[in-house]
Amino acid sequence: MLIMIRVLSNAAIEYDIKQDLRKEIEKNLQNVSMENRDLKISEDFLYENDNVHFLIIDNELQIVAGEYSDNVMEELQNLAIKNKTSHAVICDGEKYYVRDVRIQGSGIKNCLYIRGFIRKADADSSYRAIELISYLCIVGVLCIILICELFLSKRISTELKNMCQTAEQIGSNLDMSQRIKYNNQFKEIAVLAQANNRMLDRMEQTFQMQEQFTSDVAHELRTPVSVVMAQCQYARGKDIGREGYEEALEVIYRQSRKIEQIITQLLNFSRLDQDRVQLQEELLDLVEIVESVCESIQEKAQGGILLRLHMQDAVTVGDIGLIIIVVQNLVTNAIKFSEKGGQVDVSTGTEQDWVYVKVRDYGIGIEPEHLESIFRRFYQCDTSRNAEGFGLGLPLCEKIAQKHGGRIEVVSEVGKGSAFTLYLPQK
Ligand code: ADP
Question: Which of 34, 112, 115, 403 could form a disulfide with 105 if both were Cys (CB 3.0 to 4.6 A apart)?
């Protein structure tokens, strides 16, 4: 950079010297004239002004007026004439700027010129101070920038070090409650820290959900496994006769089925979670699906619940096997949580860009504080009223809906019933 400044300032100085030279010659030119082929030099003519020296020469390089008492005089005198052109020459190892201007009125044959010249070293001296000051200013500014940069980089590296330390701590003790501390002085660092903290929030949430999930699975499996073990012990301990064995085997079978159902549901989840389930997309007629699901459920529902269908066209594209699971779950829940002799309304139709299946019951309803949680795995509002279920139906339904780009909405009032609606995008 300094070299560049030096080159540029040299070019600027050279330009300035040439301009000065030109101006001085122009001024002095007013003090000479040709009258009847005679050269008239007025008293104001200056042979030297501001380090610029003047000669009057003819076109054969003979000096007509002026002198320069220097040992380079001869060299300067013998330079070829270049009218109105300032140029640099080296004479006796020193740089000079020379300019010739023809004197107005001088004849073609006997042409006279003013030759002005200036020694660079003489001109330079007046520029050196300015150059030195500008160098000092530049060095000063560079020093200030350097100090600021050092200061800033130190502050930034301290902030980044803190971030790394927190990340290391979280990594080593898996304490997800820690967050990266930052101040708002450096916007980019604050943005980075906030993004990391948001990521930690999500990771903490996922960790907690995973811990909750593991404990829920263990809890759900423990009961049937304990029953199976108790029955085995009972049957092994004493002779309980054929009937006793059959009873024990029946209990073991029922509990094993429950375990199997839990495992199957969990596997379904994990496949859907890991995107291992490829949707077998085909044309879905929701009217047909609802009718066939309700028909088979109605046959099994001996509790006397009446399923009333209100069908309007609803066609889209999706995985028929998965959508059947959703409809089955919603209708089974509606029946499960209705009073005997009650009714359940199932309707289909379209709403803006969506097709829907709505299952409305007039059963026990859901307390508002439970509404957010019923889509959580293993969540049951009241286990005493639902011995058969294990809280995996609704989360599975929601996952399937989401896989199809849809959603499940629920409205419920305690004592008045609930309405679950599956919305799928219309295609
Ligand atoms: P479950 O196998 O226990 O039915 P779900 O995930 O399907 O599991 O439902 C979770 C919980 O949501 C149920 O245990 C129940 O408390 C509540 N629930 C679901 N559907 C209804 C409904 N139609 N009426 C009242 N409560 C319901």
Answer: 34
Bridge-partner residues for 412, per DSSP?
418
Confidence band of 386 (pLDDT split at 50, 70, 90): low
In angstroms and rounded to an integer, the radius of gyration of the C-alpha atoms of the chain is: 50
| Buried-exposed string 92-103: b where 16+ CB fall within 10 A, e elsewhere | eeebbbbbbbeb
Residue 374 Cα to ligand 1 middle (Å) = 7
Query: Residue 362: CB within 6 Å of ligand 1?
Result: no
Q: C-alpha 404: how far from its chain's center?
A: 28
Ligand 1: which atom is nearest the Cα of residue 363? 24
What is the average pLDDT value for the chain, to the nearest integer?
A: 88
What separation in Å is there between the alpha carbon of 298 and the centre of ligand 1?
19
* Token output for 82: 């270049």
CA–CA distance from 121 to each of 93, 106, 117, 126, 414 (Å)?
11, 33, 12, 10, 103
Report CA-CA distances (Å) from 228 to 53, 121, 194, 237, 306. 121, 110, 51, 14, 36
Query: Residue 254: is its pLDDT beyond 90?
Result: yes
The CA distance from 245 to 232, in Å, is 9
Q: With contact defined as beta carbons under 8 Å apart, do 286 and 293 qualify?
A: no
pLDDT of residue 2: 65
Say if CB 356 and CB 422 are below 8 A apart: yes
Beta partners for residue 348, in sequence order: 357
Pocket lining: 418 vs ligand 1, CB cutoff 6 Å: yes
Tell whether ligand 1 has an atom less than 6 A from the beta carbon of residue 363: yes
